[in-house]
Amino acid sequence: MSYLELAGxxxxxxxxxxxxxxxxxxxxxEAVALLGPSGCGKTTTLRMLAxxxxxxxxxxxxxxxxxxxxxxxKRNMGYVFQSYALFPHLSVGRNIAFGxxxxxxxxxxxxxxxxxxxxLVRLSGLEQRRPKELSGGQxxxxxxxxxxxxxxxxxxxxxxxxxxDAKLRDAMRHEIRSIQRTLGITTLFVTHDQVEALTMCxxxxxxxxxxxxxxxxxEDIYDRPATRFVAEFVGRANLLPLARDGQGRATxxxxxxxxxxxxxxxxxxxxxxxxxxxxxEPAGGDTARLIGRVLRSVFVGDHxxxxxxxxxxxxxxxxxxxxxxxxxxxxxxxxxxxxxxRVFAREAS
Amino acid sequence: xxxxxxLPLLLIPATLFLLVVYVWPSLGLFRNAFNEVGPTGAMVEAxxxxxxxxxxxDSFTFELTLNSLWLxxxxxxxxxxxxxxxxxxxxxxxxxxxxxxxxxxxxxxxxSGVVRVFGWLAILGDRGLVNTTLQSLGLIxxxxxxxxxxxxxxxxxxESIMPYMILALLAGFGRLDRTLEEAARSLGxxxxxxxxxxxxxxxxxxxxxxxxxxxxxxxSAYITPKLLGGGRVFVLATEIxxxxxxxxxxxxxxxxxxxxxxxxxxxxxxxxLVARRLQR
Lengths: 349, 280
What we know:
The complex is a heterodimer. Chain A has eight helices and 21 strands.
């Protein structure tokens, strides 16, 4: 049995189901991201784990003992809230000391651990300040230190970086990741930001409509999405409508492609896995190819986005910048390794 | 003229109204405080401090002050203990009846003070609801004296200021954030400790605001001490009314009124300072 086990968790609000049958195993020291759009149930799952809401069904087990009905204050979970939730009436030092004081730790030990906590998040010397005198990034670090000094069984981060500006968010991502690794603390990270999930966690659980759509490493999720939703939500995706020709072979844009034919389905290929080559260049055995016309190429700094139009649709190819973007209007051939494509059925909704 | 510069014009109607019905009579009151009462009992125009001297050398004035302060303090405290949980509930609840419940909580405000007092007489009187119930249960043999004394006035006052205090608390709960309590819980604080260390400290500004309001309202209440006190409860407000109407001693009434006003202003300043300190 893993360190942390969620089994068949369900949470209903009236007739709507926020979390539906979520099961997840997390090893000790592992960082797992719950990734999904707003309303997918990721925060609800985290709050159930913290004991802030009660599940209707399912169990949670931590280190071999069941915690499903344990009240929040007995769970020893370090929760970092999206809004940081620092106590406005207490100084930074008292905020960090709060959990230790509730545990009856001695004054000397509290002082020592508060200093360690401040040092860990590089805020030494600011313990006398009030939370509102700190910048957003500093507040977030105080919240992190406050959750860490209690030496929690699991660290829970709820969209903790979403209120920071882009640069700071990038720095904090690395900082949190390195703290997480150094302390070897089991972490669950709720986010709607795929970059956060991909860079900060060992494994990612993509959630969709209250369920886990796929669990796996960043590469699994990105290169081998299990469902159409995962393919579209994580990264960018070309979804090309499949059809059949007279002989029953699969076609895209009325051109035969070497994939198995399917009805009401789309072929998925990442824009980065596609290459643009001259029409004259022959296709290899294990590559697929399509011919289209360049509609536009857009320079985006580190890469160029080329929009290609064919009969009945468009697709995007991402190519490294400096590799000579094709001029608009030229007819080109788009090739990709057959192994990089997947077929997803079109959803009814 | 720009729109923002025309904005103060909006204040003109209210200012004119208050000048006529409030400021002008107040100046008259101020003037009366320096008049004298002639041997016939009629007011004589003068500029004298005689009324002030007599009033503040009278130990009864001192007694009235203490009565008023004590009554207001006790009523405010009782009302606060009752209003705080109600306000917290109204502030917190997700119920779709929240609006309705809030209206119910402040409904007594919409009932005339006189009507409410008669309601209390029906409940607290010798043959009222409380006494008949306790007697039929055999818990008491003779009826408890619950009205026409300090007990009745305190109960009545506490009830009458409660709706205002509920509103003041609701307005002051601004910084009370559910997430902060969740943070405290996640850090290991029990529900009681969470209330003690987070909810209560963060609602102190609201409490100061509500207590200040309740106190001022109690100090200036006239109907409740008069009717539920049954002539045995003497406070500043009842004495001012006595002097102005029964005794027609306008200078004394004016002096006591100004004295009460100054007392209340001082209390408001203090409660404001406290609230601001707590808000930091």
